[in-house]
Amino acid sequence: MRTRSALGLAALGVSVAAGHVVYPMALAALTKFKSAQPVRPAPAVWPPVTVIVPAYLERNVIADKVRDVKANGYPGEVTVLVVADGDEATASIAAAAGAEVLLLTERGGKSQALNAGVAVAETEWIVLTDANAVLTPGSLQRLVAWLDDETVGAVAGEKLEGDGGELAYWKFTSWIKRAEWKLGSTLAMDGGLCAVRKSAWDPIPKDISCDDFWISLDMNDRGYRVAYEPEARVIEDTIGSFGQSWERRTRVLGSSLFVLWKKRHMLSPTRPVVSSKIWGHKLWRSTAGPLSHVALLGIATGTVRTSRLSQVFLVGNAAAALFVVAQSREVDLPKPASLVAQVAYLQAVALGGMVRFVQGDRALKWKKPER
């Protein structure tokens, strides 16, 4: 009986760590036999590019965004297309700043704004970027160069955000994307900056709000590779208050789970490469891992009087919770404590995201603060 209990506890422990430890270790082992990252193409002629900026309540930042894109240094022709999602004020300011503007008659959400923008774009190479994202110099050129490879349907850029534990998390996800790309294709993109090939684009379904994750999975599903370009970067302000961060992250995670539900055929064992990436990169650490953590907390609570290990485990979790509370109150924590708080917070976010998914919260038109 004790052996079975020990094995059960070990299995739960491995489950908790699978997405954050086991999968990265597997990637590290597989990429060890790859001598170098893929080499970014250098097109002989730089084709025209359309930069699509979906915008809703962005009147205070949109002019700066248009100027930022135009000043990025792309060696070919650049068209900035602002898709104003039922927002006349943003549309007017964008036009005055020199952008082409597509004004939608009513708000349909970011995914449908992207569909509308891609539909009217006259170039094969397209960049998608958020209105509040500031590009680092040369990012457009580095990003879209990968589209010179016809097997590449989309390209993920790099996002710089946060500090402390949050920055460590972004570095971790960047390493994951780099390793996956080294093995042929990544599964993760950030809507703040990415590129797509128009001929490879399929419209995002109307019930999808997590546009970047859908694009990435859909490209992989249809046989295209998704490249990763870490030197094409955007800088975004941190999400804001703790409440705003919680709302956004649980919304995104819940929406991502809905994407995975729609694309559940990709989990088939007949597609072991892409299936293992989905489980390792996203699904396990968004579902089974956090639920296993909850199970361990329940077991530890029930055995706290008789087990020193349970006592240590509960004290560690209590400390992590206190670190999260401290961060929510903007207390400057040491880096190790900040990292622990970030891990604990993301576990809680995963549980919150699962609740939103089960409740059917698709968040197609969420309440968005004006910028």
Automatic annotation (TrEMBL):
It comes from the Bacteria. It comes from Frondihabitans cladoniiphilus. Belongs to the glycosyltransferase 2 family. PANTHER family: POLY-BETA-1,6-N-ACETYL-D-GLUCOSAMINE SYNTHASE. Keywords: Glycosyltransferase, Transferase. This is Glycosyl transferase family 2. Pfam families: Glyco_tranf_2_3.
